[in-house]
Amino acid sequence: MSNKDNNIKIVTTNRKAHHDFFIEEEYEAGLELKGSEVKSLRVHGCSIQEAYAKNIGDQIFIIGMYITPYEKSSVDRLEPDRTRKLLMHRSEIDKLIAHCTQRGYTLIPLKIYFRKGWAKVKIGLARKRKKGDKRRKKLEKQQKREINQELRRFKRKG
Predict the structure, then answer these.
(1) Whole-prediction pTM value?
(2) How far apart are alpha carbons 126 and 95 in whole angstroms?
(3) Which domains, and CATH codes, for the chain?
């Protein structure tokens, strides 16, 4: 394991993202957090299942990400599902805005993690899967499972 891998602590993943979307490109962005949101993330108090990213003006924001309020915080309480700004390079933002204006593309968060103490989100440029695509993927997965079972059974006998 490299030293780079040791510095990553995954907070949460969007398990349905690869099922519901074709992920074409992935980008890493920082999260602009306030107050006790960082402590809440460190104790895995986050959900990104219903979240998506959207450009507002010339910036990209994540909408629908739920961070549970930190229970030991006595200072001002923040809204758990407020809109949060993503921190990226200007060239990446311009590229993503250009892609998102095309029909059928959206930005979805894939996972949230800490790298070297900084909260990061991996976002994917994605297209929605159609029902037939989901069925086809499920069928391929089932066929692959059956083939592996037959191979194991064959290895045991012979």
Answers:
(1) 0.76
(2) 14
(3) 3-129 (2.40.280.10)
